[in-house]
Design the sequence.
């Protein structure tokens, strides 16, 4: 067990028991204190969401509601169409997951396992593109979507209508083959031996069969991690849906919650209820899959 | 960029074997994939040609997406930045006039000052908190794993949820933070309503919300610190700080570089909380660069000017990335 010496490096178990005990106690105090700082705001939010309006003002600090009520949730769902936002967000988040898993693994596979001239260059272009701040391409991407030919009332030259603006596609497509997904899957495919594909290649299997039958099944755990991370970022995405979705019926939970903050900024109860509802799916997903998520982050060194 | 490959040497994943050429050097990510294992096939032209064709087929759709939603927008942004364009009217050519205007725009300099202030607070604090918590939890026990979950939980909350939660926590009269400060006899400030404290409040919020990710990255990096080195240093009488500084830091310097670069790049793009909570106020104290770009582009519909601003931001981020890369390369060689 190397449990001891990290807390008080220098004090070896047995050589200096007092110092060692102090170290262990300090470790527990620090760990508990930080846990309180990270978890308490969330528990307080949860507590507030169940307090009636009067109690929020009278008894703001308590973590246990005296007379718990669901009225904040009812009010949140009736003043803001959260149910509708939920469906919208699920669609764009899942759409993003499907596209990124499919396209990210295709490109990642080609960059990891297939030999062709320009492979290094293609990869460098992907890496470099990760350095471009998203705000740079935001306005032109908006214009590209708006002028997409032959959709949303546009003619062949891309004029006349709103294009893909105000559709789910406007949120899904720009991030459908994200550089992160390509990078992540490339890293993952590189960790699978080349020999498997080479054997099949000699046996006359086509490249697509090798990808689909041999490598993709072996990449299941990588796909799962990428899917979880993509879902989380899709669910939590704020600025882009805010820009491309103007129709109230199309909004996502994050945009809806932000609007709620602006319009009902003093109604803390319903506001906190809305926050809880918005966080719940990702929180549950995290609690059930945290080991994979943690591995995925440690593996690629990025979110 | 070179640091990324150094990160997790695939040990957490179901690896049958590592890539033949493990990326131990700083030659860039691609060196890891040099096909030394396939030399036997290099004479086999038919197979290679076949692979080449397949590769471009695999890349066709992702490549199309890259062109339509990254490459084209990047070039268009550059072109739009040279025009006066409001979406409803056709663009008017201005040349470099937008860029000249930026230099004399007092709001731009306010945004720069605010963003630099934010970055100067956020990056060191984020680094200290994430590395500190990683060192604290760098032990292989069940208890440490439970605490890891607690520490990581804020990452799950979106920027909007973080903002609404902290909006309540930071409430000057009823908020949790000022109540806790009150126990220690400190009269807490009005936070989001005070131009001196609003940006600091956003820094605290974002460190709280984001440090968990970097903590996990550091935990991955700390696994690579050789235990015998640590042990040897201890036997030589080094204290905890000396071990940290002379053994741990050099071993995790690629991770340190990666996290610092990402923190800086992220800090310069801070937007969400400033938009949701303060709308740039009070007294423009939280107008950040991205907030100002958003305001010019989608508020005032000055797409050309906003694009020019975004390229100034790009230049800033690019320079920081280059400086960081140069420093790391020098350390490596």
Sequence:
């Amino acid at each position: 067990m190397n449990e001891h010496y990290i807390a008080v490096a220098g004090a070896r178990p047995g050589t200096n028991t007092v110092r060692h005990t102090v170290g262990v106690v300090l470790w527990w105090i620090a760990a508990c204190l930080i846990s309180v700082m990270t978890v308490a705001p969330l528990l307080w939010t949860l507590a507030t969401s169940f307090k009636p309006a009067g109690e929020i003002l009278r008894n703001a600090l308590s973590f246990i509601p005296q007379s718990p009520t669901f009225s904040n949730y009812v009010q949140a769902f009736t003043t803001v169409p959260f149910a509708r936002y939920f469906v919208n967000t699920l669609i764009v988040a899942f759409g993003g997951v499907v596209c990124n898993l499919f396209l990210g693994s295709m490109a990642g596979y080609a960059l990891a396992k297939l030999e062709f001239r320009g492979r290094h260059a293609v990869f460098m272009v992907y890496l470099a593109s990760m350095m471009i701040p998203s705000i740079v391409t935001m306005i032109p991407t908006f214009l590209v979507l708006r002028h997409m030919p032959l959709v949303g009332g546009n003619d062949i030259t891309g004029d006349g209508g709103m294009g893909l603006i105000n559709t789910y596609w406007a949120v899904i497509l720009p991030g459908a083959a994200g550089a992160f997904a390509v990078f992540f899957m490339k890293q993952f495919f590189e960790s699978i031996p080349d020999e498997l594909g080479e054997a099949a290649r000699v046996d006359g299997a086509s490249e697509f069969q090798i990808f689909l039958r041999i490598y993709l099944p072996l990449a299941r755990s990588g796909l799962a991690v990428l899917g979880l991370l993509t879902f989380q970022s899709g669910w939590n995405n704020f600025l882009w849906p805010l820009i491309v979705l103007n129709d109230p019926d199309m909004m996502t939970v994050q945009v809806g919650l932000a609007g709620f903050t602006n319009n009902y900024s003093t109604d803390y109860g319903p506001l906190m209820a809305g926050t809880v509802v918005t966080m719940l799916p990702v929180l549950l997903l995290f609690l059930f899959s945290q080991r994979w998520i943690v591995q995925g982050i440690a593996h690629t060194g990025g979110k | 960029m070179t640091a990324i490959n150094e990160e997790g040497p695939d040990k957490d994943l179901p690896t049958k074997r590592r890539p033949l050429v493990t990326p131990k050097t700083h030659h860039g990510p691609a060196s890891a994939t040099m096909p030394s294992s396939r030399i036997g096939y290099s004479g086999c032209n038919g197979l290679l040609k076949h692979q080449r064709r397949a590769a471009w087929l695999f890349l066709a759709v992702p490549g199309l997406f890259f062109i339509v939603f990254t490459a084209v927008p990047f070039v268009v942004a550059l072109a739009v930045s040279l025009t006066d364009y409001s979406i409803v009217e056709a663009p008017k050519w201005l040349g470099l006039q937008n860029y000249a205007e930026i230099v004399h725009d007092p709001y731009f300099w306010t945004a720069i000052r605010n963003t630099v202030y934010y970055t100067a607070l956020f990056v060191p604090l984020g680094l200290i908190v994430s590395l500190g918590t990683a060192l604290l939890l760098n032990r292989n026990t069940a208890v440490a794993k439970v605490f890891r979950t607690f520490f990581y939980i804020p990452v799950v909350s979106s920027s909007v949820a973080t903002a609404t939660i902290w909006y309540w926590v930071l409430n000057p009269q009823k908020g949790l933070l000022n109540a806790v400060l009150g126990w220690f006899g400190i009269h807490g400030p009005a936070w989001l309503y005070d131009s001196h404290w609003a940006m600091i409040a956003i820094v605290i919020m974002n460190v709280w919300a984001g440090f968990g990710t970097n903590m996990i990255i550091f935990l991955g990096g700390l696994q690579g610190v050789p235990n015998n080195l640590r042990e040897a240093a201890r036997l030589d009488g080094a204290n905890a700080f000396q071990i940290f500084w002379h053994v741990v830091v050099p071993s995790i310097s690629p991770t340190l570089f990666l996290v610092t670069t990402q923190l800086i790049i992220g800090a310069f793009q801070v937007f969400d909380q400033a938009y949701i909570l303060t709308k740039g106020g009070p007294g423009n104290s939280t107008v950040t660069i991205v907030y100002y770009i958003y305001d010019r582009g989608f508020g005032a519909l000055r797409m050309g000017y906003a694009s020019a601003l975004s390229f100034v931001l790009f230049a800033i981020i690019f320079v920081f990335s280059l400086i960081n890369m140069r420093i790391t390369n020098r350390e490596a060689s």
